[in-house]
Amino acid sequence: MGLLDRLLGRIRRGREGRAPARGAARGDRGILVFRHTSEVIRAEALLKEAGLAVRVMGPPPELRTGCDLVIEFPLVSGLSARQALARAGLEPLAIAPVGRGLLEPVSLFQVKDFGDHLMVRAANMKLTVDKRSRVIVNVSGGGCPDVPYLAECLVGQRLDQAPRPGEVGHTLCGYALQLAFEEMLRQCPG
Amino acid sequence: MPWLIVGTVPDPEFLAVAGPCAWDGEALAVAGRRLRPARGTPALLAAACLASAALDREPPQAVLAGDTGLGQGSRDAYSLLLGLLDSPCAWPGITFHYLQPDVDWHNRILARIDELDPRPLLVADAGYMYVAKMSGYAAAYDLFTPDLGELAFLADELAPHPFYTRGFLQHDNGGAPDLIARAWAGENAARCLLVKGEVDLVAAQGVVVDRIAEPVVEAMEPIGGTGDLLTGLATALLDAGLPAPEACGVAARANRLAGLLAQPTPAFSVADLLPFLPAALEQALAGRPSQGKPPSGEGH
Lengths: 190, 300
Fold this sequence. Notes:
By secondary structure, chain A is α+β, with helices and mostly antiparallel strands. Chain A has six helices and eight strands, in the order H-E-H-E-E-H-E-E-E-E-E-H-H-H.
Protein backbone atom coordinates (compact mmCIF):
# COMPACT_ATOMS: atom_id res chain seq x y z
CA MET A 1 0.00 0.00 0.00
CA GLY A 2 1.52 3.34 -1.06
CA LEU A 3 1.79 6.49 0.96
CA LEU A 4 -1.16 8.07 -0.86
CA ASP A 5 -3.39 5.04 -0.22
CA ARG A 6 -2.45 4.99 3.45
CA LEU A 7 -3.18 8.70 3.79
CA LEU A 8 -6.47 8.47 1.95
CA GLY A 9 -7.46 5.52 4.12
CA ARG A 10 -6.69 7.55 7.21
CA ILE A 11 -8.71 10.48 5.87
CA ARG A 12 -11.71 8.21 5.09
CA ARG A 13 -11.58 6.59 8.53
CA GLY A 14 -11.35 10.02 10.13
CA ARG A 15 -14.38 11.23 8.25
CA GLU A 16 -16.45 8.16 9.12
CA GLY A 17 -15.80 8.61 12.81
CA ARG A 18 -16.52 12.31 12.93
CA ALA A 19 -19.87 13.90 13.68
CA PRO A 20 -21.00 16.01 10.73
CA ALA A 21 -20.23 19.69 11.24
CA ARG A 22 -23.21 21.98 11.62
CA GLY A 23 -23.49 24.08 8.48
CA ALA A 24 -23.43 23.37 4.80
CA ALA A 25 -19.69 22.92 4.29
CA ARG A 26 -16.24 23.56 5.73
CA GLY A 27 -15.81 26.55 3.48
CA ASP A 28 -12.97 28.01 5.54
CA ARG A 29 -10.30 25.55 4.36
CA GLY A 30 -8.00 25.85 1.40
CA ILE A 31 -5.47 23.59 -0.30
CA LEU A 32 -1.88 24.18 -1.30
CA VAL A 33 -0.76 22.33 -4.41
CA PHE A 34 2.89 21.48 -5.04
CA ARG A 35 4.95 19.96 -7.81
CA HIS A 36 6.23 16.96 -5.85
CA THR A 37 5.28 14.96 -2.80
CA SER A 38 8.64 15.83 -1.26
CA GLU A 39 7.67 19.50 -1.45
CA VAL A 40 4.35 18.72 0.23
CA ILE A 41 6.06 16.98 3.10
CA ARG A 42 8.58 19.78 3.50
CA ALA A 43 5.80 22.34 3.36
CA GLU A 44 3.77 20.45 5.96
CA ALA A 45 6.68 20.61 8.41
CA LEU A 46 7.28 24.29 7.72
CA LEU A 47 3.61 25.22 8.14
CA LYS A 48 3.21 23.22 11.34
CA GLU A 49 6.36 24.90 12.65
CA ALA A 50 4.70 28.24 11.84
CA GLY A 51 1.75 27.24 14.02
CA LEU A 52 -0.80 26.65 11.24
CA ALA A 53 -3.37 23.86 11.55
CA VAL A 54 -2.59 21.89 8.38
CA ARG A 55 -3.28 18.37 7.14
CA VAL A 56 -1.90 16.40 4.20
CA MET A 57 -4.81 15.27 2.05
CA GLY A 58 -5.56 13.51 -1.22
CA PRO A 59 -6.12 15.96 -4.07
CA PRO A 60 -9.60 16.56 -5.49
CA PRO A 61 -10.24 14.92 -8.90
CA GLU A 62 -9.80 18.13 -10.84
CA LEU A 63 -6.25 18.53 -9.47
CA ARG A 64 -4.98 15.01 -10.15
CA THR A 65 -2.52 16.08 -12.80
CA GLY A 66 0.64 14.77 -11.26
CA CYS A 67 0.00 16.33 -7.84
CA ASP A 68 -0.39 13.37 -5.55
CA LEU A 69 -0.97 15.24 -2.33
CA VAL A 70 -2.15 18.64 -1.25
CA ILE A 71 -2.05 20.44 2.07
CA GLU A 72 -5.30 21.54 3.65
CA PHE A 73 -4.96 24.78 5.64
CA PRO A 74 -7.15 27.55 7.13
CA LEU A 75 -7.97 29.65 4.06
CA VAL A 76 -7.75 32.98 5.85
CA SER A 77 -4.16 32.17 6.84
CA GLY A 78 -3.10 32.04 3.20
CA LEU A 79 -0.66 34.89 3.55
CA SER A 80 0.99 33.44 6.66
CA ALA A 81 1.34 30.15 4.81
CA ARG A 82 2.92 31.81 1.78
CA GLN A 83 5.33 33.72 4.03
CA ALA A 84 6.40 30.60 5.94
CA LEU A 85 7.02 28.77 2.68
CA ALA A 86 8.74 31.71 0.99
CA ARG A 87 11.22 31.97 3.86
CA ALA A 88 12.30 28.45 2.97
CA GLY A 89 12.30 29.14 -0.76
CA LEU A 90 9.20 27.03 -1.37
CA GLU A 91 6.37 28.19 -3.60
CA PRO A 92 3.11 26.28 -4.11
CA LEU A 93 1.86 25.62 -7.64
CA ALA A 94 -1.63 26.75 -6.69
CA ILE A 95 -3.80 27.76 -3.75
CA ALA A 96 -7.52 26.98 -3.89
CA PRO A 97 -10.55 26.69 -1.60
CA VAL A 98 -11.40 23.12 -0.58
CA GLY A 99 -14.00 21.17 -2.51
CA ARG A 100 -14.90 23.93 -4.91
CA GLY A 101 -12.45 23.30 -7.76
CA LEU A 102 -10.09 26.12 -8.58
CA LEU A 103 -11.65 29.51 -7.98
CA GLU A 104 -9.78 32.43 -9.45
CA PRO A 105 -8.86 35.24 -7.05
CA VAL A 106 -10.32 38.64 -7.88
CA SER A 107 -7.81 40.18 -10.24
CA LEU A 108 -9.33 43.49 -11.34
CA PHE A 109 -8.15 46.77 -9.85
CA GLN A 110 -10.27 49.88 -9.54
CA VAL A 111 -8.51 53.24 -9.44
CA LYS A 112 -10.30 56.40 -8.27
CA ASP A 113 -8.79 59.88 -8.48
CA PHE A 114 -9.80 62.35 -5.76
CA GLY A 115 -7.59 65.18 -7.04
CA ASP A 116 -4.83 65.32 -4.42
CA HIS A 117 -5.38 61.68 -3.49
CA LEU A 118 -5.50 58.40 -5.40
CA MET A 119 -7.36 55.28 -4.25
CA VAL A 120 -6.67 51.76 -5.53
CA ARG A 121 -9.03 48.91 -4.81
CA ALA A 122 -8.04 45.24 -5.09
CA ALA A 123 -10.76 42.73 -4.24
CA ASN A 124 -12.22 43.98 -0.95
CA MET A 125 -9.29 46.23 0.07
CA LYS A 126 -8.65 49.91 -0.70
CA LEU A 127 -5.44 51.90 -0.32
CA THR A 128 -5.36 55.71 -0.62
CA VAL A 129 -2.25 57.82 -1.12
CA ASP A 130 -1.44 61.55 -1.25
CA LYS A 131 -0.25 61.88 -4.84
CA ARG A 132 2.41 64.54 -4.19
CA SER A 133 4.02 63.18 -1.02
CA ARG A 134 3.23 59.48 -1.76
CA VAL A 135 2.18 59.17 1.89
CA ILE A 136 -0.46 56.50 2.58
CA VAL A 137 -3.42 58.36 4.11
CA ASN A 138 -5.97 55.57 4.45
CA VAL A 139 -6.58 51.82 4.33
CA SER A 140 -10.18 50.66 4.14
CA GLY A 141 -12.34 47.66 3.34
CA GLY A 142 -11.71 44.06 4.34
CA GLY A 143 -12.90 42.10 7.31
CA CYS A 144 -10.09 39.98 8.71
CA PRO A 145 -8.49 41.15 11.97
CA ASP A 146 -5.16 42.10 10.42
CA VAL A 147 -6.86 44.93 8.48
CA PRO A 148 -6.88 47.43 11.39
CA TYR A 149 -3.33 46.32 12.24
CA LEU A 150 -2.16 46.83 8.66
CA ALA A 151 -3.81 50.26 8.66
CA GLU A 152 -1.88 51.18 11.82
CA CYS A 153 1.39 50.00 10.23
CA LEU A 154 0.86 51.73 6.87
CA VAL A 155 -1.04 54.99 7.39
CA GLY A 156 1.32 57.94 7.59
CA GLN A 157 4.16 56.10 5.85
CA ARG A 158 5.55 56.95 2.42
CA LEU A 159 5.05 54.25 -0.20
CA ASP A 160 8.78 53.63 -0.51
CA GLN A 161 9.24 53.36 3.27
CA ALA A 162 6.08 51.54 4.31
CA PRO A 163 6.20 47.88 5.28
CA ARG A 164 4.82 45.61 2.58
CA PRO A 165 1.32 44.37 3.50
CA GLY A 166 2.39 40.93 2.32
CA GLU A 167 5.10 40.86 4.96
CA VAL A 168 3.12 42.08 7.98
CA GLY A 169 -0.35 40.76 7.09
CA HIS A 170 -1.51 37.19 7.62
CA THR A 171 -4.83 36.74 5.84
CA LEU A 172 -6.48 36.92 2.43
CA CYS A 173 -7.42 40.55 3.17
CA GLY A 174 -3.73 41.24 3.81
CA TYR A 175 -2.86 39.56 0.54
CA ALA A 176 -5.46 41.67 -1.30
CA LEU A 177 -3.95 44.81 0.27
CA GLN A 178 -0.53 43.71 -1.01
CA LEU A 179 -2.01 43.58 -4.53
CA ALA A 180 -3.45 47.08 -4.06
CA PHE A 181 -0.06 48.25 -2.77
CA GLU A 182 1.74 46.86 -5.84
CA GLU A 183 -0.79 48.51 -8.15
CA MET A 184 -0.34 51.81 -6.27
CA LEU A 185 3.42 51.58 -6.84
CA ARG A 186 2.66 51.24 -10.55
CA GLN A 187 0.24 54.18 -10.43
CA CYS A 188 2.56 56.41 -8.33
CA PRO A 189 6.08 55.36 -9.34
CA GLY A 190 7.66 58.40 -7.69
CA MET B 1 -29.35 44.77 29.80
CA PRO B 2 -27.16 46.48 27.19
CA TRP B 3 -26.26 45.22 23.73
CA LEU B 4 -23.10 43.09 23.36
CA ILE B 5 -20.39 43.83 20.76
CA VAL B 6 -17.70 41.22 20.02
CA GLY B 7 -14.53 42.09 18.13
CA THR B 8 -10.78 42.60 18.17
CA VAL B 9 -8.20 45.35 18.56
CA PRO B 10 -4.93 45.52 16.56
CA ASP B 11 -2.67 44.95 19.55
CA PRO B 12 -1.11 41.53 20.17
CA GLU B 13 -0.55 42.39 23.85
CA PHE B 14 -4.24 43.12 24.52
CA LEU B 15 -5.62 40.17 26.49
CA ALA B 16 -9.26 39.17 26.13
CA VAL B 17 -11.66 41.23 28.25
CA ALA B 18 -15.40 41.52 28.74
CA GLY B 19 -17.14 44.49 30.27
CA PRO B 20 -18.97 47.77 29.86
CA CYS B 21 -17.91 50.48 27.40
CA ALA B 22 -17.60 54.19 28.11
CA TRP B 23 -16.76 57.13 25.85
CA ASP B 24 -15.18 60.21 27.45
CA GLY B 25 -15.19 62.43 24.37
CA GLU B 26 -11.70 61.43 23.22
CA ALA B 27 -11.06 57.82 24.04
CA LEU B 28 -12.99 54.65 24.61
CA ALA B 29 -12.73 52.57 27.75
CA VAL B 30 -13.66 48.88 27.79
CA ALA B 31 -13.52 47.11 31.14
CA GLY B 32 -11.20 49.90 32.27
CA ARG B 33 -8.81 49.64 29.25
CA ARG B 34 -8.43 52.83 27.17
CA LEU B 35 -8.55 52.46 23.38
CA ARG B 36 -8.14 54.90 20.49
CA PRO B 37 -11.16 54.74 18.18
CA ALA B 38 -8.99 55.10 15.06
CA ARG B 39 -10.66 52.27 13.17
CA GLY B 40 -12.05 48.76 13.51
CA THR B 41 -14.01 47.54 16.51
CA PRO B 42 -12.99 50.47 18.77
CA ALA B 43 -14.49 52.85 16.16
CA LEU B 44 -17.68 50.77 16.07
CA LEU B 45 -17.85 50.79 19.88
CA ALA B 46 -17.29 54.57 20.05
CA ALA B 47 -20.08 55.19 17.53
CA ALA B 48 -22.41 52.84 19.43
CA CYS B 49 -21.59 54.63 22.72
CA LEU B 50 -22.24 58.09 21.23
CA ALA B 51 -25.47 56.98 19.58
CA SER B 52 -26.66 55.15 22.70
CA ALA B 53 -26.17 58.33 24.73
CA ALA B 54 -28.12 60.34 22.14
CA LEU B 55 -30.91 57.74 22.31
CA ASP B 56 -30.96 57.62 26.15
CA ARG B 57 -29.82 54.02 26.12
CA GLU B 58 -27.15 52.26 28.17
CA PRO B 59 -23.77 52.04 26.38
CA PRO B 60 -22.95 48.60 25.00
CA GLN B 61 -20.90 45.88 26.63
CA ALA B 62 -17.97 44.39 24.76
CA VAL B 63 -15.94 41.23 24.42
CA LEU B 64 -12.55 42.20 22.96
CA ALA B 65 -9.18 40.60 22.37
CA GLY B 66 -5.98 41.66 20.62
CA ASP B 67 -5.51 40.12 17.18
CA THR B 68 -3.22 41.17 14.35
CA GLY B 69 -4.37 38.50 11.94
CA LEU B 70 -2.92 35.31 13.39
CA GLY B 71 -6.29 34.41 14.89
CA GLN B 72 -5.31 33.65 18.49
CA GLY B 73 -7.01 36.77 19.85
CA SER B 74 -10.19 35.94 17.94
CA ARG B 75 -10.16 32.43 19.39
CA ASP B 76 -9.70 33.93 22.88
CA ALA B 77 -12.70 36.21 22.25
CA TYR B 78 -14.78 33.26 21.00
CA SER B 79 -13.84 31.25 24.08
CA LEU B 80 -14.68 34.11 26.44
CA LEU B 81 -18.02 34.66 24.70
CA LEU B 82 -18.90 30.97 24.87
CA GLY B 83 -18.22 31.05 28.62
CA LEU B 84 -20.49 34.09 29.01
CA LEU B 85 -23.20 32.35 27.00
CA ASP B 86 -23.09 29.46 29.47
CA SER B 87 -24.10 31.79 32.31
CA PRO B 88 -27.50 33.51 32.54
CA CYS B 89 -27.47 36.35 30.00
CA ALA B 90 -30.14 38.51 28.43
CA TRP B 91 -28.49 40.73 25.84
CA PRO B 92 -31.13 42.14 23.48
CA GLY B 93 -28.64 41.67 20.67
CA ILE B 94 -25.07 40.80 19.74
CA THR B 95 -22.97 42.52 17.07
CA PHE B 96 -20.00 40.54 15.75
CA HIS B 97 -17.21 42.41 14.01
CA TYR B 98 -13.49 42.03 13.06
CA LEU B 99 -12.92 38.40 14.01
CA GLN B 100 -10.87 35.71 12.31
CA PRO B 101 -13.32 33.54 10.34
CA ASP B 102 -13.51 30.10 11.98
CA VAL B 103 -16.49 27.91 11.13
CA ASP B 104 -16.13 25.56 14.11
CA TRP B 105 -16.17 28.41 16.64
CA HIS B 106 -18.98 30.12 14.74
CA ASN B 107 -21.16 27.03 14.83
CA ARG B 108 -20.54 26.36 18.51
CA ILE B 109 -21.49 29.94 19.37
CA LEU B 110 -24.57 29.95 17.16
CA ALA B 111 -25.77 26.64 18.61
CA ARG B 112 -25.52 28.11 22.11
CA ILE B 113 -27.28 31.34 21.09
CA ASP B 114 -30.11 29.30 19.54
CA GLU B 115 -30.80 27.89 23.00
CA LEU B 116 -31.32 31.34 24.56
CA ASP B 117 -34.83 32.49 25.34
CA PRO B 118 -35.39 35.21 24.32
CA ARG B 119 -32.93 34.80 21.48
CA PRO B 120 -30.88 37.99 20.94
CA LEU B 121 -30.89 39.80 17.60
CA LEU B 122 -27.72 39.02 15.66
CA VAL B 123 -25.70 41.50 13.60
CA ALA B 124 -22.55 40.49 11.69
CA ASP B 125 -20.05 42.69 9.90
CA ALA B 126 -16.47 42.20 8.60
CA GLY B 127 -14.85 38.82 9.28
CA TYR B 128 -17.79 37.45 11.20
CA MET B 129 -20.11 38.16 8.28
CA TYR B 130 -17.70 36.14 6.12
CA VAL B 131 -17.80 33.17 8.48
CA ALA B 132 -21.57 33.40 8.96
CA LYS B 133 -21.91 32.99 5.19
CA MET B 134 -19.21 30.28 4.99
CA SER B 135 -21.01 28.27 7.68
CA GLY B 136 -24.24 28.04 5.69
CA TYR B 137 -26.15 29.76 8.51
CA ALA B 138 -26.37 33.31 7.17
CA ALA B 139 -30.16 33.19 7.40
CA ALA B 140 -29.89 32.87 11.20
CA TYR B 141 -28.77 36.53 11.32
CA ASP B 142 -30.90 39.66 11.53
CA LEU B 143 -28.49 42.09 9.86
CA PHE B 144 -25.39 42.02 7.65
CA THR B 145 -23.66 45.27 6.60
CA PRO B 146 -21.69 44.47 3.41
CA ASP B 147 -20.16 46.89 0.92
CA LEU B 148 -20.78 46.19 -2.76
CA GLY B 149 -17.80 43.84 -3.07
CA GLU B 150 -18.92 41.89 -0.02
CA LEU B 151 -22.47 41.77 -1.40
CA ALA B 152 -21.09 40.07 -4.53
CA PHE B 153 -19.35 37.59 -2.22
CA LEU B 154 -22.64 36.87 -0.43
CA ALA B 155 -24.33 36.38 -3.80
CA ASP B 156 -21.63 33.96 -4.98
CA GLU B 157 -22.62 30.63 -3.48
CA LEU B 158 -19.14 29.22 -4.25
CA ALA B 159 -16.93 31.97 -2.81
CA PRO B 160 -15.53 31.26 0.68
CA HIS B 161 -14.04 34.79 0.97
CA PRO B 162 -14.49 38.08 -0.97
CA PHE B 163 -11.03 37.48 -2.45
CA TYR B 164 -12.47 34.58 -4.47
CA THR B 165 -15.69 36.22 -5.69
CA ARG B 166 -16.25 35.25 -9.31
CA GLY B 167 -15.86 38.06 -11.82
CA PHE B 168 -19.29 37.81 -13.44
CA LEU B 169 -20.83 39.11 -10.21
CA GLN B 170 -20.32 42.83 -10.77
CA HIS B 171 -19.63 45.22 -7.89
CA ASP B 172 -21.75 48.15 -9.01
CA ASN B 173 -24.79 49.82 -7.56
CA GLY B 174 -26.93 49.07 -10.64
CA GLY B 175 -26.61 45.32 -10.18
CA ALA B 176 -26.98 45.37 -6.40
CA PRO B 177 -30.73 44.53 -6.24
CA ASP B 178 -30.10 41.37 -8.28
CA LEU B 179 -27.16 40.39 -6.06
CA ILE B 180 -29.32 40.97 -2.96
CA ALA B 181 -32.05 38.73 -4.38
CA ARG B 182 -29.50 36.08 -5.37
CA ALA B 183 -27.84 36.11 -1.91
CA TRP B 184 -31.24 35.80 -0.21
CA ALA B 185 -32.43 33.01 -2.54
CA GLY B 186 -29.22 31.10 -1.82
CA GLU B 187 -29.70 31.52 1.95
CA ASN B 188 -26.43 33.45 2.04
CA ALA B 189 -27.90 36.69 3.42
CA ALA B 190 -29.24 37.89 6.74
CA ARG B 191 -32.91 38.86 6.99
CA CYS B 192 -31.92 42.50 6.59
CA LEU B 193 -28.98 43.86 4.58
CA LEU B 194 -27.48 47.34 4.72
CA VAL B 195 -25.40 47.56 1.55
CA LYS B 196 -22.84 50.39 1.63
CA GLY B 197 -22.17 52.07 -1.69
CA GLU B 198 -22.58 55.19 -3.78
CA VAL B 199 -26.25 54.66 -2.99
CA ASP B 200 -26.77 52.80 0.30
CA LEU B 201 -29.45 50.12 0.00
CA VAL B 202 -31.56 48.55 2.72
CA ALA B 203 -33.06 45.17 1.90
CA ALA B 204 -35.50 43.05 3.85
CA GLN B 205 -35.76 39.37 2.94
CA GLY B 206 -34.06 39.90 -0.39
CA VAL B 207 -36.03 42.96 -1.51
CA VAL B 208 -34.76 46.56 -1.52
CA VAL B 209 -36.97 48.63 0.79
CA ASP B 210 -34.95 51.85 1.15
CA ARG B 211 -32.35 53.78 -0.88
CA ILE B 212 -30.15 56.44 0.70
CA ALA B 213 -28.36 58.56 -1.90
CA GLU B 214 -28.00 61.92 -0.15
CA PRO B 215 -26.00 63.76 0.96
CA VAL B 216 -23.06 62.76 -1.26
CA VAL B 217 -19.65 63.16 0.42
CA GLU B 218 -17.19 61.49 -1.95
CA ALA B 219 -14.25 61.68 0.44
CA MET B 220 -15.99 59.23 2.80
CA GLU B 221 -15.21 56.23 0.54
CA PRO B 222 -11.44 56.00 1.12
CA ILE B 223 -11.68 56.73 4.87
CA GLY B 224 -11.03 53.49 6.72
CA GLY B 225 -13.68 52.78 9.35
CA THR B 226 -16.73 54.63 8.00
CA GLY B 227 -18.43 51.23 7.71
CA ASP B 228 -17.55 50.58 11.36
CA LEU B 229 -19.33 53.81 12.35
CA LEU B 230 -22.35 52.75 10.31
CA THR B 231 -22.54 49.36 12.02
CA GLY B 232 -22.16 51.06 15.41
CA LEU B 233 -25.02 53.44 14.60
CA ALA B 234 -27.25 50.61 13.36
CA THR B 235 -26.46 48.62 16.50
CA ALA B 236 -27.51 51.48 18.80
CA LEU B 237 -30.71 52.07 16.82
CA LEU B 238 -31.60 48.36 16.99
CA ASP B 239 -30.95 48.50 20.72
CA ALA B 240 -33.35 51.47 20.90
CA GLY B 241 -36.01 49.24 19.41
CA LEU B 242 -36.22 50.35 15.79
CA PRO B 243 -37.07 47.56 13.34
CA ALA B 244 -33.95 46.56 11.40
CA PRO B 245 -34.86 48.19 8.04
CA GLU B 246 -35.69 51.48 9.75
CA ALA B 247 -32.58 51.33 11.94
CA CYS B 248 -30.47 50.82 8.81
CA GLY B 249 -32.07 53.71 6.95
CA VAL B 250 -31.53 56.12 9.86
CA ALA B 251 -27.96 54.88 10.38
CA ALA B 252 -27.06 55.32 6.70
CA ARG B 253 -28.50 58.85 6.63
CA ALA B 254 -26.75 59.78 9.88
CA ASN B 255 -23.41 58.46 8.60
CA ARG B 256 -23.70 60.57 5.44
CA LEU B 257 -24.80 63.62 7.44
CA ALA B 258 -21.78 63.22 9.73
CA GLY B 259 -19.63 63.39 6.60
CA LEU B 260 -21.44 66.49 5.42
CA LEU B 261 -20.95 68.19 8.79
CA ALA B 262 -17.27 67.18 9.04
CA GLN B 263 -16.35 68.10 5.43
CA PRO B 264 -13.57 65.49 5.33
CA THR B 265 -10.71 64.97 2.91
CA PRO B 266 -9.64 61.42 1.91
CA ALA B 267 -6.91 61.77 4.58
CA PHE B 268 -9.40 62.01 7.49
CA SER B 269 -9.61 59.39 10.21
CA VAL B 270 -12.98 58.14 11.46
CA ALA B 271 -11.99 59.56 14.83
CA ASP B 272 -12.34 63.00 13.16
CA LEU B 273 -15.95 62.16 12.27
CA LEU B 274 -17.05 60.98 15.72
CA PRO B 275 -17.77 64.48 17.19
CA PHE B 276 -20.33 65.03 14.41
CA LEU B 277 -22.28 61.81 14.99
CA PRO B 278 -24.77 63.01 17.67
CA ALA B 279 -25.95 66.01 15.61
CA ALA B 280 -26.07 63.86 12.47
CA LEU B 281 -28.12 61.21 14.25
CA GLU B 282 -30.54 63.82 15.56
CA GLN B 283 -31.04 65.17 12.03
CA ALA B 284 -31.53 61.69 10.59
CA LEU B 285 -34.08 60.78 13.28
CA ALA B 286 -35.94 64.04 12.69
CA GLY B 287 -36.24 63.11 9.02
CA ARG B 288 -37.83 59.68 9.53
CA PRO B 289 -41.59 59.32 8.99
CA SER B 290 -42.47 59.02 12.70
CA GLN B 291 -39.86 61.72 13.57
CA GLY B 292 -37.69 62.14 16.64
CA LYS B 293 -36.16 59.76 19.11
CA PRO B 294 -37.72 56.31 19.41
CA PRO B 295 -39.23 55.68 22.83
CA SER B 296 -36.61 53.97 24.99
CA GLY B 297 -36.60 50.20 24.43
CA GLU B 298 -39.39 50.27 21.84
CA GLY B 299 -40.14 47.08 19.98
CA HIS B 300 -37.59 44.45 21.17
